[in-house]
Amino acid sequence: MIDQEKERLEVENRKFKKENQPLQEKNLRLRIINEYTKKLDALVDQRIEREKQDKRKKSSKR
What we know:
Layout: H1 2-61
């Protein structure tokens, strides 16, 4: 009886792992996209700040 229950749980576990795989892959893709977006956003912010500084320097030289 215990062996049957153990086998049933192992089968169920394999089934859940198989169903879970696509979700894990999607989660990884979304985390990568999120990190990329954060880095891109930081670069855009840096660029905007540099342009503001350049604009201030030009206006102060006049």
